[in-house]
Description:
GO molecular function: dolichyl-phosphate-mannose-protein mannosyltransferase activity
Structural class: mainly alpha
Pathway: Protein modification; protein glycosylation
Pfam families: TMTC_DUF1736, TPR_16, TPR_8
Strand order of the largest sheet: 1-2
Oligomer: single chain
Subcellular location: Endoplasmic reticulum; Membrane
Largest sheet: 2 strands, antiparallel
Radius of gyration: 33 Å
EC number: 2.4.1.109
Distance between the termini: 97 Å
Amino acid sequence: MGFSRQEYWSGLPCLPSRDLPDPEIEPMSLTSPVLAGGFFTTSTTWEARLLYKPATKALMCTDVVSLISQVSSQQNAGPRGRQGAAVRMAEWDASLDHVIPSSLLPPFWAKFLVGFASLMCFARSYDGDFVFDDSEAIVNNKDLRAETPLGDLWHHDFWGSRLSSNTSHKSYRPLTVLTFRMNYYLSGGFHPVSFHVVNIALHGGVCVLLVDVFSVLFGGLQYTSRGRRLNLAPRSSLLAALLFAVHPVHTECVAGVVGRADLLGALFFLLSFLGYCKAFRETNKEGTHSTFWVLLSILLGAVAMLCKEQGITVLGLNAIFDILVIGKLNVLEIVRKLLRKDRSLESPGMLRTGGLLFRMTLLALGGAGVLYVRWKIMGTGPPVFTEVDNPASFADSVLVRAINYNYYYSLNAWLLLCPWWLCFDWSMGCIPLIKSVGDWRVIALAALWFCLIGLICQALCSEDSHKRRILTLGLGFLIIPFLPASNLFFRVGFVVAERVLYLPSAGYCMLLTFGFAALSKHTKKKKLIAALILGILFLNTLRCVVRSGEWRSEDHLFRSALSVCPLNAKVHYNVGKNLADKGNQTAAIRYYREAVRLNPKYVHAMNNLGNILKERNELQEAEELLSLAVQIQPDFAAAWMNLGIVQNSLKRFQAAEQSYRTAIKHRRKYPDCYYNLGRLESEALFLKAIKAHPNTASYHGNLAVLYHRWGHLDLAKKHYEISLRLDPTASGTKENYGLLRRKLEQMQKKNV
């Protein structure tokens, strides 16, 4: 069966004309279980051969639509509407031809463009510092150092704490930590550049993989007789991958080194999905599959979970894909049969056909087994979070919790729609609780559910099978990876987190691409649609570049959040801490005070503010702040120790000793506190001795040495002079006194 060039239907995606060697054109096998998502059910293998025109060195597609029509007519297979499903799929994709030129459709150039765009968006972050959580997860994480046995990584959380510890957040990501350790070893230390370069490369790899994933989700599975998968939706898959590559909400994952957990989790998530698709690659008989690839897909899902907890959700996406694309389950048809009480639903044959029930069993057992092992490793106890981390989860009213959770979902949706309002942290009062249905913000969650219900109705009830499949898979990719962060199954330690949108954003990009294709198909203003799409790509790219610059240093990152979340106490705290580290105590005090004002129970801000006030000799206020901090959080060891230091400076030695001992009680391994306690006891003993024998020169001389070492130079000078007045011949005291005087003179010259 042959076709002339005039018979070619322009709606089908084709390879562009280009100079090529004369390859062997292989047949394209239209095997029923995998044709464009299962659009017809004949078990006969039909071949549509690609025509090669030597005169122009151009590859052209045959009239696949005509072929499908003939096959469907001859075999009389499937319910009404399947014959035109492939045609509709091709029409949807071809409607984007004014946006995606044919020269970009070959797989190499499509993937090159997506990879290049992803690298350009975030290349600016390559020489950034370790910022925010990077300090705890990398710089202060002992699991990255060579002296820590590799086996410890399997018993520690993401931050290097033992999973059995009460303070552990139970974030179990040993494979991600292992890559950090490899970075540390290969770069010879904590050099941020190597860490950032790996993150940028991982994002590029994820984006390239998504070209293949989107081609399956949009166009279904179709393989040549040689086992090569065909991309039947090249324009849609390329546009969706580009939208994902340049989405600004990904900046936290790419520019923040700890975001590697999300990048690695997404990488193995996609590999698991593509592996599941390969289970149907080498079969010509309807319903057969490769159990090896199904099991490998489950294994890759487990690997994804060892990088980031969201990874295990790929098994849910695989199940939906299998049911809709491989199993060809028609939800609309099932609903109609239910309404008619059709007895054919009682037959289990539908599930048994094609081994669907067997594959669902494998996925369910694999997922349950992986989760059970994860639960056992975690210590069977859930992580412990505070109210400031996730205030809605601590609300007494179920209604208040439900309203706020849904409001958080709407904010996540808004970040996908309009990613210009970005912040490194959304907790600590950034989003005040909705306490009644009269709050105007309820409109946001109402709008979210209005859109979701509309999409779900279209996904389940549309007469267009292609539309049902795309919407269902898009919603599945959007919702399923987000479930671990939804608060539905367990409490999470954040309100909104841009990093958890990395995978769900792929589903959003898929739905957005489908929407653009629908607009292009039903409007004559195609140039306007093209301009809109190109404008979104350009603006998002620009936003990525700007946001990547903000993530290069903590100063820019923290200050960028002040305009987004001015009510966030943690933002002010981090700005203040950054200023204090640079020696600007006056400005730091201002931000610490604002943090305490916004959150009167913010013990860490109280502790840091108390330390600065202590150094400025404002001891009374410092003691009040630190006392309040330990009253709010009685096991706050650092605040107890700092309170002891202040009490020691106030000559309240007994109270200081009690504070030190309380700090050690809550933190057994606390060398600084042991040192301070020893210092306190030695000072108290010398003062007690001097009180009993005030004219003993050695008592004053030794106390002066103590003050000299502590940096209390005025007190050291006073007791050196008393000692020398009582014993002018003490050579050691003379020498130490001379050292002190030279130091004081140097300090005086420096001040002048």
